[in-house]
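thread: overnight batch results

M.L. [08:02]
morning all. the overnight job finished for the chain we discussed friday. pasting input first so we're all looking at the same thing
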Amino acid sequence: MTSAPADGSGGRTLIRRLADWASDLELDDAPDRVVAHLGSQLLSQLAAARTGYAHPLGRRIARAYGGPLQPDPARAAVSLAMAAICLDHDDTVYAGHLSHSCVTVPVVFARQLQLDGRQLLTAILAADETAARVTAAATLGPFRGQAAAHTHLAGTVAGRLRALDAPARAWVNGLGLAFSVPPWTLTPGFLSTDAKGFAAAAPIQTGLTACDGALAGLRGPADVLEHPEGFLRRYADVPLPEEAVAGFGTLWHTETLSYKVHPGSAYIGAAVDCAVDCAAGLRAAGADPDDITEVVVEGSLLTSGLDRASRARHIGPDAGVAALNFSLPYNVATALLTGTLEPADLMSPAVERPERWKLAAKVRTVHDPHLSRAALLSTAPLGQALRRAGEHADAWVRATDARAADMLPPSWLAPETDFRFATKRLGARVTVRLHDGRELSAHRAQAAGAVGSGEHTALAREKFLRSGGHPEVPHLIAELAGLDANGVAELISLALSGAADEARAEISRGERRRPGRSRRTNSVDTRALEGAYGRLLRSADSVPDRELAELALEAAALAASDVLSEVEVEVEVEVETAAVDALLASAPRDVLVDLVRRNAAHLLGVLDRMPAGDEGHWARVVEDLRDHVERARKSARTDAGDARGEEHGAGS
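M.L. [08:03]
and the structure it wrote out:
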């Protein structure tokens, strides 16, 4: 008799495990904080599409493939995805640029399938979680970001089949068929021409074709991801199969969303934000662009690496949109001159203005090891994958960029088990030097809108309104879970028709067509404790190392099942001095902060999943924990960091 695998998979392949979970996923399975991201993601993706269609490239896309509201959902999906990707104004998660398939496919099929609001949101959620997991499993390889076109194979199959409420067997065959012919992105076309749009269009077409086949009974290989000659072996230098199936119901990739304020690569977003800050300082100083001698951009290896790749293509006024999106000098120079960076800056006449290229020639990039260290500690874009890779991470990093090996966090750091405190710290520092010797500088620990930077609903709303979208749409998306099928169809038409001057649409709000399962009731409300940890993390720079070590160890100990399973146990867990001393000896300050972040998220996840019981006891546990965290924060040398939030600003 053969025993079942120790991992609890029951011998099922990765695709079967994904399909079994995602095909049955309901909106009520996700916490409210995760569901809130779905509306912002939808609104932000609609904004990216609208700005794309307004660009000359977007108009050519519409001529080639039709518009987003055409009767053929397959062509509409291709058109909508290409419009949204063309200005690099889309959002990211750990791992991947999901929305071109995970939002687009459910949106275009919503009218044909008569989805109500809850069904649309559920389809987006299932697509997000499926596509992000498959992308994460291959993220230590040659393809990341928009170049990881295979993301959209998973997003398309999951988004369409969840919208259809298709059974798990259809998912297995659909994913198996699609991943048997994955796309391979070639750099020359992707970095500098309109071919970048096909990184979304081609896999969407393949994914939809795979769905058609699966629904008609065609079979695909269920082990295509982990097979010795399968996808992960060919597409990943370090395959991470566990990333595809780890933490179902606890690791919500959707809540790692980072929202783009400006069009362009995420690797240069913080530098553009710094340039916007410096532009205000230049105006205050009465400085003219001709007064600038040089502009120095300090960034992580990811930023400096992108800059090297971009400069190799000698980008100028006649460059395509894709090349402009990746050009750090052009985007930083534009933000310094105008105080912003908008989609209009990626088209004529703005891109032809000689003063922009004159200033761009003065921009140089410098690698900052501290910013690289912060990037590698973050959840996205690589940190979680590096932690999952364990001892294999060092060899992969050395092969990719030997300089980064010395900046890797300790190999003993475990992967995160809860993404509620996820980070994407791709920071930058911009220094503007003037002829008279004055300097203006600005620093951003991460780009505006990056995960962990604050409230996302207002940001997505502002982005949509700046795209010229109808002002009623954000309000309707906020109520999307209550819209019936007619309301969803009218909402999509209103959002994509460009009819900003039309009269207010009357959207019907009816009962959802298919009832979802009831949300599980937790035994205790952990929101106050989560808020306390959040405030502590925002002011962590001023918290003593020993306090951080104690908090990290305490959270880890309390999360242990043998502690929390005892209803009568007191909340206070004695953290031995020797353990604190050992941690302080082995972990530098940035690792201590990261341990508090990871362990706090894990503890909160454990508390969220506690079965109903002595509610009074758990309320006391959470209250005591919250008080302890607040005391640690207030014992810091200063609370200025808490009020300041993310460090940024400009000054002479």
